[in-house]
Amino acid sequence: MLSRFFYFLMDNNSPQELKLSFKGEFYRKLLHISSSSIPIGYYFLDKDIVLSILVPIAFAMLMVEIFKYKSKFIFTTYLRFFKHMLRNHEIDRNKFRVNGATWLLIGDVIAIIFFPKLIAVTGMLLLSLADSFSGIVGRLYGKKEYAPNRTYIGSLTFLAVGLIIAFAAPKYNYSWIEYLIAAITVIITTIVDGMNLPTDDNFAIPIVSSALLYVLYMIFFPGIFAG
């Protein structure tokens, strides 16, 4: 496994497009993995403190996304630093698109605002870790696609890593029902991610998984969020 990874990442005899494409995807996923610092930090910090940091950053990133289409200088500077991590649709100036990192922050902010802390933390971790590892493994070993940019091995990786995260994440009372709720959420989120929805998965995953957790907790533990 490691030998194949380093072959794609470093081998100078591989096609240039493939090498750069995988390196860009790898660095992109590393950035996503590093975003796990957001839910981890949120677990230990007050909601208002986290939002006071994330909201201005998300707003600034969104402004850059908007003005990169209006200013050639901003667009050129943007590409100089980030082109190796961007997909084609994210640098197409003919149609407004927001890149994955900005969607990630927006999704995290919404999860923090609208859902209880432990639920939002779990939803954000699923995006940061399960989605990232599924992307890397799927890119390396995914031979068969069942949908555009969706492989069987990638989705199985999402499911496996997602279950580990959901089971390890902090719980309210650590009853077996909570672990059942976690498993149901990960399974449904894996299916939703595999559907290749028109919305960016960096936005959809934390919102969908947090909403599922919230609804299931309300069903199995009525009144748990009261007060």
Measured distance between first and last alpha carbons: 50 Å
Q: Can you tell me the overall shape?
A: globular
Main β-sheet description: 2 strands, antiparallel
Number of helices: 10
**Which strand order do you get reading across the main beta sheet?**
1-2
Show the helix and strand layout:
Blueprint: H1 2-10, H2 16-34, H3 37-44, H4 47-67, H5 72-82, H6 100-114, H7 117-141, E1 145-147, E2 150-151, H8 152-168, H9 176-194, H10 201-220
Antiparallel strand pairs: 1-2
Helix pairs in contact: 2-7, 3-7, 4-6, 6-7, 6-10, 7-8, 7-10, 8-9, 9-10
Structure report:
With 227 residues, this protein is mainly α. It has one domain. It is 72% helix and 2% strand. The protein contains ten helices and two strands. Strands 1-2 form a two-stranded antiparallel ribbon. A hairpin with a 2-residue loop joins strand 1 and strand 2. The radius of gyration is 19 Å and the shape is globular. It starts with a helix and ends in a 7-residue tail after the last helix.
Short structural summary:
This protein is 72% helix and 2% strand. With 227 residues, the protein is mostly helical.
